[in-house]
Design brief:
The protein has 688 residues and is α+β, with helices and mostly antiparallel strands. Helix content is 59%, strand content 11%. The protein is elongated and about 165 Å long. Keywords: ATP-binding, Kinase, Membrane, Nucleotide-binding, Phosphoprotein, Transferase, Transmembrane, Transmembrane helix.
């Protein structure tokens, strides 16, 4: 809630409380007439009584004010609900009709007393002189009702009528109260009672608060000298006339009672009053001095903070690595920092007052003024508040790429702009070099793939011939060779077959990145099932048991993920110990990644070879013990790295191996899933 809204709310609530109090008091007056309680209709016997029709009219105006103030939706009094506004208007119109009828009766001498229907003993109870509402009371109540109605006009003229009407009623009520206090009948007339003046005055203050009280309340808030003086002097101004009248009454009574001794008592009283006034003056002077001193200290603190802020901003301005340029709304340069001097080659006095276009090459130079004018006219942002890349021009005429960001600053008397300029020549050069390197790498990969394909094709053809002729030689001329010759022939055939397999594996390895599919969401469970299906014969021959947990989905190449699982499961089947292989495949989400594990109970791997096994053509066993080319785990590593993950192994000789790898996750998975099992019944596992 803003301060303005808080002031409006305070005035509205105060107005409601005051109008409600007046309504209750008017109802008490009516109850006094109904039950003949004289103290409810006049302060003391012999004084004018409040007419019941006056109390009824006060009830109407107070209710109208309450309805209008309780339904206010904003700071404007005229913004009210249609229903409550209509009821309020109707009550005010009824009051205007009563007041006008009574006032015309005073002017013409014709009068009917409708309140006698409700209070038949009114003349007897209050005296014949009070059988009608006074003309002054009729005027004030009618003016109040018209002031309430004027707000329905929803115009400045209606607001003025309400404001001046409330002020007039308050002034008349104060005069009547002073007349009663001082005994001056001309100020209140014969028929206007004290209660009437209080009730009508209360309604006037309520209407005034609802209409323009927020101006006065705002002036009284805060620690400004005007506000402090206003808060202390207003009660004095309001109470002083009442005190003066009471002192006059006391002095008159003293003169009448004491005669000659009254002068001595008056002198003593005057002296005491002067001492009290002088003490009050000294106290208020000290208080005002303290207030002024506090404001001076506050102003000094603000000046110190402003100076510190300026010094801090100046230090940042001077030591900033990026160039900073400030311009006015005409595009003229006001300040440049040392970094800008160094970047553009100009001294501050060379650019001050000149258009910022001097630091720009075409086409930026020709478009700048139109951009600036369009922003100042329409507020359309093309540069302001939007970082972008552009070109700048040095003093020697050379151009260079920059990153530019411009912000608007609202000064007390004008609008300015601050530009941050960063030289991105090195970055642009690096980007160009990187682009060239990427293009070169793409070209090299394409050439390498073509070379690998040609090499594999050209190598496979003679290898197939060697293998075919060796086989033909063995079949047709084998009886002419001795045992040693047949061994040589077998070695040649196995060598050609192994070389053929190496060429195929090398081609597959080179195509992981060049021929792979785009990364997409892949169901890991499907990939494992395909890998197990491809190894079905090996699984049956080894009597292996494979347990697969429910696996999360990942972002990868589906065929390569199948190849990855197939290689890891195949290694577990190949490098098995004396026991039947037991392989457990699991996976879990770790943040945005998924971590998979392939655990077996095989022969294990010594720790010193944990990194070596992922290198191409690296083998820990000879071909007589375990067949293979030594490319399988290198292929696994390349597949995982292409998908943005890593692969590693935990293993000890004789205790099995667990291969771990990570890939980017795709879908949320549940907390618990039942595992899948292949080929054998599940049993308890103790896997390393």
């Amino acid at each position: 809630m803003t301060e303005r809204e808080a002031v409006f709310r305070y005035c509205r609530i105060t107005s409601m409380v005051l109008a409600g109090s007046v309504l209750i008091a008017a109802l008490l007056v009516l109850s006094g007439w109904w039950w003949q309680v004289d103290q409810f209709v006049r302060p003391a016997s012999g004084m004018p009584a409040t007419h019941p029709l006056t109390a009824i009219s006060v009830c109407l105006v107070a209710t109208a004010l309450l309805l209008r103030s309780t339904s206010v939706k904003s700071s404007q009094l005229t913004s009210v609900d249609d229903f409550t506004g209509g009821v309020s208007t109707s009550l005010a119109c009824f009051c205007v009709m009563i007041s006008a009828t009574n006032f015309i009766g005073w002017l013409t001498g014709w009068y009917t007393c409708p309140d006698e229907w409700l209070f038949p003993d009114i003349s007897t109870a209050a005296g014949p002189a009070v059988c009608r509402m006074s003309a002054a009371t009729s005027f004030m109540l009618g003016l109040l009702a018209v002031s309430v109605l004027s707000h329905a006009l929803r115009s400045s003229s209606g607001s003025k009528i309400g404001k001046y009407g409330a002020q007039t009623v308050i002034a008349l009520a104060v005069l009547m109260l002073l007349g009663h206090l001082m005994g001056v009948r001309a100020l209140y007339g014969y028929f206007t009672s004290v209660y009437t003046a209080l009730l009508v005055g209360g309604l006037g203050v309520s209407l005034w608060l609802l209409n323009e009280g927020h101006y006065w309340v705002s002036a009284m808030r805060g620690n400004r000298l005007l506000a402090v003086n206003f808060r202390y002097l207003l009660p004095i101004v309001c109470i002083a006339p009442v005190v003066a009248v009471m002192m006059s009454r006391v002095i008159s009574w003293v003169h009448a009672s004491l005669g000659e001794q009254a002068g001595l008592l008056g002198a003593w009283g005057l002296g005491i009053a002067m001492m009290l006034c002088f003490g009050r003056y000294i106290r208020e002077t000290r208080r005002l001095h303290d207030v002024i001193l506090a404001q001076q200290l506050s102003m000094q603190e603000l000046r110190d903070e402003s100076q510190i802020s300026n010094e801090r901003a100046r230090a940042i301005f001077d030591v900033a690595v990026d160039a900073i340029v400030t311009i006015n709304c005409q595009g003229e340069i006001e300040l440049i920092n040392p970094a800008a001097e160094k970047l553009f080659g100009y001294a501050p006095e060379e650019v001050r007052g000149r258009n910022i276009k001097m630091l720009m090459p075409d086409p930026y130079r020709s478009n700048h003024d139109s951009y600036l004018q369009a922003y100042l006219t329409t507020g359309e942002r093309k540069v302001i508040g939007i970082g972008r890349e552009a070109m700048a021009q040095r003093k020697d005429g050379s151009t260079f790429p920059i990153e530019l960001s411009v912000s608007e600053i609202m000064l007390p008397d004008r609008v300015g702009f601050v530009g941050m300029v960063r030289d991105i020549s090195i970055r642009k050069q690096a980007e160009e070099e990187m682009q060239y390197a990427n293009e070169t790498l793409t070209k090299s990969n394409s050439e390498l793939e073509h070379f690998a394909y040609i090499a594999s094709h050209d190598l496979q053809e003679p290898l197939r011939k060697i293998s075919a002729y060796c086989s033909l030689l063995k079949d047709e001329k084998g009886n002419m060779l001795d045992e040693e010759g047949l061994d040589y022939l077998d070695v040649a055939m196995r060598g050609s077959e192994r070389l053929s397999q190496l060429v195929k594996d090398l081609l597959t390895f080179s195509r992981i990145t060049t021929r792979g599919q785009a990364l997409e969401a892949v169901d890991s469970n499907t990939s494992v099932q395909e890998a197990v299906a491809n190894l079905e014969m090996s699984i049956e021959e080894s009597g292996a048991e494979i347990i697969v947990d429910r696996l999360p989905g990942v972002m990868t190449d589906a065929s390569q993920l199948t190849q990855l699982f197939q290689n890891l499961i195949g290694n577990a089947l190949k490098y098995r110990g004396d026991e039947s292989p037991v392989i457990h495949i699991s996976g879990k989400k770790v943040g945005e990644q998924c971590e998979f594990s392939v655990c077996d109970n095989g022969i294990g791997i010594d720790k010193q070879f944990h990194d070596k096994i992922f290198q191409i053509f690296q083998r820990l066993h000879n071909r007589r013990e375990y067949s293979g080319t030594g490319i399988g785990l290198a292929l696994c590593k390349r597949i995982v790295e292409r998908s943005g993950g890593i692969i590693w192994v935990d293993s000890e000789p004789g205790r099995g191996s667990t291969f771990h790898f990570t890939m980017k996750a795709t879908v949320e998975e549940g907390d618990h899933h039942e595992p899948h099992q292949f080929n054998r019944e599940p049993r308890d596992l103790a896997l390393a």
